[in-house]
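Q: Got a minute? One more chain.
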Amino acid sequence: QVQLVESGGGLVQAGGSLRLSCAASGRTFSTYAMGWFRQAPGKEREFVAAINWGGGSTYYADSVKGRFTISRDNAKNTVYLQMNSLKPEDTAVYSCAADKSTVALRLAPQYAYWGQGTQVTVSS
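A: Always. Here it is, folded:
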């Protein structure tokens, strides 16, 4: 069982930056693939970024490629999402997810564990 708690969301102007954190419980964090997803009001949840257990493999949605960076610190049981050059269309609830896998996972059904989410609002 893994519990995930996100933090770092907030209100930022377009062009600004935020760093989201997702802290995981348990002593086997390094064996979990991690991902970030987001859901805007009235829209489906969408994939944002994923990272494999060791951190050497990452994937990004085309809409965030070049602006967002996913990383992890296995010693701190934490995964991060650095978001730069934010746009109003990035406004959403961002959730992290975990699954016991050695490879990065890009589909929501592949993840067994989810956090509650953190709100990111980008004003124009």
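A: The chain has a mean pLDDT of 96.
Q: Perfect, thanks.
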